[in-house]
Every structure is written in C-alpha cells, then in structure tokens.
Amino acid sequence: MNFKVNDYLNKRRMESIEKRLSKQEVPSDFADPNDVDDEDVESRVLSIIDEVDSSFSFEEFVKSRGETHAQCYQSRNDVGKNITTGLVETHVNAARAALKMFEAGRNEDARAIFDPDLLVQLMKHKTKLEIYLSPFLHGMRYTSFGRHFTKLKKLEEIVERLHSYVQNGDTIVDFCCGSNDLSCLMKAKLEKTGKSCFFKNFDLILPKNTFNFEKRDWLTVKKEELPDGSRLIMGLNPPFGFKSSLANTFIQKALEFKPKILILIVPSETKRVDAIADYDLIWEDANLLSGKSFYLPGSIDVNNKTIEQWNNIPPPLYLWSRRDWTWNHKAIALQQGHITHMYHSTYTVGLHHAEPPPDDGIVQEMEISPLD
C-alpha cells in the first residue's frame, strides 16, 4: 500500500520514455497523430506530478511549525504502525496532483493518479491523526483543540477534597492549567486552613489569570526545575488525545518527577499509573464529572454564552499516591470519609473495590463516618 502510488508513477514514467525513444526510430511521415497527443498529455501529467513532488518538503513543514509542538504528540501509544510519514507524504502529493487534473477537467487522469481507495484510506488516517496534527493545524492554540476545561464549580469540589492531602511547603503543579483556576482556588482554601504552599502552572495558552503561570510546554520541563517528589502534588486535566495517547504522555512526563500525589481527570482507558510506576490508587470517583462538567475554551453560542460540554461517558477523577506515601494518604482518606476502609478505592460507594491484599493483621473493614 505504501508504494502503490510511487510504483504506478515510476511505471508511467518508464512507459513515457519508451514511447519517446520508439517515436524517434520511426520516420515522421508514418507517425500516428494520436501518439503525439497522448505523449503530450502524459508528459504534462508527469511534469505536474514532479513539480508537486519537488515543491513539498514534509520535514521543512514540521520544522517551520516548531519542534516542541511536534514533540508533544510523540506518544507511547502510536495511532497506528501503518501510518508512516512516507505514506502520508505520498498520499498528499498524489492528492495534490489529482486535484490539479480534476480542476483542468481531466477526471480520468485524476482517477488514475489518485485511486478512490486511497481517498478512503486517507480519510481514515485523517480521523486518527486529527489530534496528532493539531499543533500544525492550529499553531499555538493547540491546547484548546481536542481539549475541554473543567468548570469552576467542579474545580471547587476537587479542591475541597484535595486540600486535606496537602502539607505546608508542598508545591502544587498544574501541568496543563487551561484557565488557571485550580491553583487560585487551592491557594484560597489552604490559606483558610493555615497552610502555605507553592504553585507552578504550565500551558501554551496565556490565561487571563497569570498567577504563578509559565507559558511553556510541559514536556520541556526538567527535573531540576521542580522540588523533590516528596514535596510535589501534580495534575489535573491533560488533553486526552486519540485513545488517551496525550493523557498517557503527560502522565509519563509527570512520573519523571516522582510526585507523592497525582490527581487526574482522564478517561478510564488511560494507562493505570500503578501499571507503569510504584503508585497506589487511593480513590477514584466516576460520577463527579458527569453531566455538564466541562466547557469548550474560547467558544460561545449565538447568545454569547460559553458552550458547555455534556459527557456521555464522564472521565473519572483519580487520586494516586506514591507507594511510600500510600498509608499516609489512605489514613487521610479514611479520616475525611473519602473511602470507607483501607482497601476501598472508590470515592462513590458501590462501583468498584480494589482487591484487598493478604491479611496482614490490619482491620480491613474499619468504617469511619464523614466529617462535617
């Protein structure tokens, strides 16, 4: 499939050369007039293809759009091993050549250059590549593409749960902060409880609220730029990407810093953190973000109201703990009524229970009522 178009073009070029050579051997008095027209058409078609092929450089195009944007979309979850750079480049060149022929009224030539089957395949690739190509298509607005921001009311509920796990001197990192509301809400809550913390907020879009904001690609942040992991709490809402590929990339980057807590809003198909690092799930809530919990950044309807997004399958909210902090965080979760016993990992009762480990002498069914 990868070489179908190239093989066809090379074959046609060879046939054209053979025709020209054979024509030179035949006396002009016996030349067939039709051969002249066919050769002229063939020559012009191949000339157009060569012109298009030579005028498009995929490498230069990627470079011109910025290397850091391209790096954002290099994920461990590739969209498909069959979608290679060469394949996409070949399809693009063939499509451009066919379009020129179609505009000139040469429909059959266009069909020969760009088979309808290729068009179907290209549309399938487009569906899969939309998120991956968004930095090139949308430039610096890419974080708003294929992304949604969490509504303020839901962030307030998250802060109400998360603040109990924060200690004095911790640094809270929002690696894809969007409108930058989380840190402001958290700061206000912590001040009320007598805690003092630091904040770092990253994104490529400059928000209205620039509190401790750094306009930067999260994937370029280095380990030495942040405190030790035992002082780090990270999250919250990364772009999901195709089959959670971007979410996985953002989480993988966060794990390089070994934060003691990861608070995440990600689809359930995202790789479990405990499957790729030494972390334990403290709790998950599959219901908090149901309904109209998100909005589309920069989008308004005909009445100048922000467009809200209803999730048919809401992404859960997860609280992950680094394994050497698990018991501390489980104890806090019990005290706050976030879980009902030490091996209960669902915030909302009745959905899912983690398998309890072998009996180690700890009372597993201890019940603690929620605090007022």
Automatic annotation (TrEMBL):
InterPro entries: Mtase_EDM2, SAM-dependent_MTases_sf
Cross-referenced SUPFAM superfamilies: S-adenosyl-L-methionine-dependent methyltransferases
Pfam families named in the record: Mtase_EDM2
Domain DM2: 165-333
Membrane spanning stretches: none
PANTHER family found in the cross-reference section: EDM2-LIKE PROTEIN1 (PTHR46235:SF13), PHD FINGER-CONTAINING PROTEIN DDB_G0268158 (PTHR46235)
The name this protein goes by in its record: DM2 domain-containing protein
